[in-house]
Amino acid sequence: MSIPDRPVPIVILTGAGISKESGLDTFRDADGIWSKVRIEDVATPEAFHRDPETVFEFYNHRRAGLLDPAIQPNAAHKALARLQESWPEDVMLVTQNIDNLHERGGSKDVVHMHGELLKARCEACGNVAEWHEDLTIDTPCFICGSVGTKRPHVVWFGEMPLHMDKIEWALTHCGLFVSIGTSGNVYPAAGFVSMARLRGQAHTVELNLEPSEGSSLFHECRHGPATEIVPAFVD
Ligand code: BV8
């Protein structure tokens, strides 16, 4: 694995493509999630305000799907966990994904910049808790007791991604930035490669099934299924 000789953190960004071979849909592939529902109807604060039931149903369906025992971490998730084990202080794993397959594959301290499907948040008290059941508008907050204030702990379009200060710091100090399984369509994640190159002089690598929107911005691109190219890159 081409790691610069400077002892600086490695930053990895993953997207839906790393979970595809585990059985979870991507978003922008031909059969992707956004080919079945519109972002404006299910993944914006306006949609939630206008029609919470539809938004709850969208995430309840995905949550139940993720909890299906057939959905398991794959060789790519496990390879990244091995990498973290080899470089415990030097790897920051940032994911756009809201699934928990990195954790179940053995990764620690996963930075979920778009939130987590198996967590719910109370807008009244801010409490974030593990949540594996269906959410409805009537689900009370078991911390403050408010009703009508629970939502999926997910970052919608138009909302600020989580942990951006920590991510931007790592990008400006890393020697290696690796982007895995993302189409490079969604910002600010799609801009991370430029941030790593311009402010951090990192070596940048894209591991994806096919060239992404931002492929030309990377020093190195390897294309193929994540379960093949990620272990090959890590090991
Ligand atoms: C924000 C959670 C500002 C929900 C998601 C410029 C700068 C800043 C913002 C913008 C900007 N331009 C536009 C924006 C607004 C917007 C945006 O980027 N819109 C896009 C559509 C143009 N961004 C935002 O709104 C973000 N917020 O900027 O806030 C702000 C500032 C101050 C104050 C307040 C706010 C928030 C974006 C987060 C939205 N939430 N996820 C949920 O999951 O339901 S994003 C959504 O796209 C997905 O959830 C996913 O996380 C994300 C990225 O998708 P990918 O992971 O890349 O998936 P995709 O299907 O696209 O690609 C899969 C790839 O895998 C493909 O390339 C495929 O080839 C590959 N693949 C397939 N199979 C395999 C494979 N690779 C390997 N192996 C395989 N087997």
Q: What is the straight-line distance between the termini?
A: 7 Å
The CATH class assignment of the largest domain is Alpha Beta
Integer average pLDDT: 94
| Distinct ligands | ligand BV8
Total count of domains = 2
Number of helical stretches of at least 4 residues: 9
By CATH, the architecture of the largest domain is named 3-Layer(aba) Sandwich
Largest pleated sheet: 6 strands, parallel
Which stretches are low in confidence, meaning pLDDT under 50 for 5 or more residues running?
A: 1-8
Shape: globular
Q: Report the C-alpha radius of gyration, rounded.
A: 18 Å
> Could you give me the name of the CATH homologous superfamily of the largest domain?
TPP-binding domain
Q: What name is given to the CATH topology of the largest domain?
A: Rossmann fold
Strand order of the largest sheet: 3-2-1-7-8-9
Strand content: 15-25%
**Oligomeric state of the chains?**
single chain
Question: Based on DSSP secondary structure assignment, what is the total number of beta strands?
Answer: 9
Enzyme class: transferase
Pfam families: SIR2
Function: NAD-dependent lysine deacetylase and desuccinylase that specifically removes acetyl and succinyl groups on target proteins. Modulates the activities of several proteins which are inactive in their acylated form.
Main location: cytoplasm
